Amino acid sequence: MKILTVDEIREVLPSLDLMPAIEEGFRAYSEGRAVIPPVGELLLDKGEVHLKYGFIRGEEFYVIKIASGFYGNPALGLPSGNGCLLLFKQETGEAAAILLDEGLLTNVRTAVAGAVAAKYCAPKDVQRIGIVGAGTQARLQLEWLAKAMVTPCRDVLVWGLNAEEVERYRRDMEPLGFTVKTTLDASDVLEACNLVVTATPSHTPLLRAEDLRPGTHITAVGSDTPDKQELDSAILAKAGLVVADSIPQCRLRGEIHKALESGHIEESRCIELGAIIAGKAKGRTSESQITVVDLTGVAVQDLAIASAVFRKLRDRSTIS
Amino acid sequence: MKILTVDEIREVLPSLDLMPAIEEGFRAYSEGRAVIPPVGELLLDKGEVHLKYGFIRGEEFYVIKIASGFYGNPALGLPSGNGCLLLFKQETGEAAAILLDEGLLTNVRTAVAGAVAAKYCAPKDVQRIGIVGAGTQARLQLEWLAKAMVTPCRDVLVWGLNAEEVERYRRDMEPLGFTVKTTLDASDVLEACNLVVTATPSHTPLLRAEDLRPGTHITAVGSDTPDKQELDSAILAKAGLVVADSIPQCRLRGEIHKALESGHIEESRCIELGAIIAGKAKGRTSESQITVVDLTGVAVQDLAIASAVFRKLRDRSTIS
Known about the structure:
In chain A, strand 6 (81-89) and strand 7 form a beta hairpin. Chain A is built from eleven helices and 15 strands. Chain A has helices at 6-12, 18-30, 104-121, 136-147, 163-173, 187-192, 233-238, 247-252, 254-261, 273-277, 299-315, and strands at residues 2-4, 34-35, 40-43, 48-56, 61-69, 81-89, 95-99, 129-132, 155-159, 179-183, 195-198, 217-220, 241-244, 270-272, 291-294. In chain A, the strands form two sheets. Chain A has an eight-stranded parallel β-sheet, with helices on both faces. In chain A, strands 1, 2, 3, 4, 5, 6 and 7 form a seven-stranded mixed β-sheet that branches.
């Protein structure tokens, strides 16, 4: 088994073409070529652990991803996120590699998925990008919207819990070519922005349906459990297009789960991102349509990014 | 994260006191101190993968174990079993160690569990030990019955699929102090032996209820999926004591699952091994009682053995 450190992984990442890799993962999933069991979960006193695993039939590897969130860690000087990915050969079960990514690959594949969601569902004319949350994922989502050339817009409004947090976000992101305004009132985001990404671990809705304007696209990234929620479920009811990364998974987790549970939408209204990518379903159909994409994080993304990292390092012969 | 190789693990194993470690694992489980989600499963074209994971509240680690069986591997010159165990800290989610055990720890913890089962449920006067199967686990089960001093009996009858296999078993086990007879007719085993261990991947019953004699104890080790079965379910119906390593798990897998499904027993008749260890339920109550213990393999065993290995190596300061 090859052991890949976070430094090796970080070094190889910029050379990978991740948008097509993640798109192909979603597509394979929605076309029924992937086997992805329900997410495994361990709930401990101080944190939670998710196990995401699966494979695409006929590919080289299966993946098992372990990702944890221990939200008291920062007070101990430790990152809250942790984990690793393991790749095994589909032919023999032999371990190919353990990627000691410390959560980096989960962060990146989630940001890439956000860019994919916006590519297919955001309006063409983005007035301003709204980012709800000011942490690591909130940074990566914005970076990837630009990197994947989803929109030429570089005007941003960021919401966070306090002035220090959003100011830090502004200072970090402006050197990357964005013009960042800040707010502590989340309703400002839906008023000023028509491409919105939510990336918080909130358990109560941050965005309200009454602030929603026609033509807005929202990618909801933060909620990946049955309890977390960033969007008022009435937002999904108002949307003309509700997209899941995985319908079976969104039945149990995330914004769609909440909206189904409260009766705001019916499952038959949801389509999968992979179906849009494959051209079997339509993404945005008009500039005035309201669109919501709910990303709970699917193991095909982990498989795609881990396989891409491993293959690149193998091709370079730094590993065999 | 410390990376422990199979050589390091093999070297440290003999210095560990595994019987009390595994007993305490079962006890914690049956006393409700453990959190063990259902087994995760990946079914591939050429093999199957099981994910077993969980923790005991208040302990240092949680465990995630990945174990695979690819039954065409031997034809490729590869072992059929594969996998690894990972230990993480309950306080922070930090990875403590990955144990690249290549299935060794699963094999050993399963054999130790067999010895625990016999310790509490086998008759005092063992006339002959019957081993059904002649592979790795069939060897380890016999070794551990002796190592754990469950019985002074060293007379063995082994059943296998062919003469070469059982002859190899005899040649391997006699130097360890056993007198081994061989048979290719499984019904001989229940006729000659009153402490029987089944350790095959069979999908059809190998032992028949009509051959069962009063006083016999059977530990069924081989079936750990919904489909595998080594015992005619009527054997469980005839037994005065039916023991599960985990009732929730045996509801879905193993001999008890099969017997419940076919209506041969009711779940209320089953008790847990940990309850017997804790003194909250009775093991064998008479020499004439028929007893069956169904071992499907519980993550507390993986946690116990992985923690014991890691702590020993840490105490020796070969790792920090």
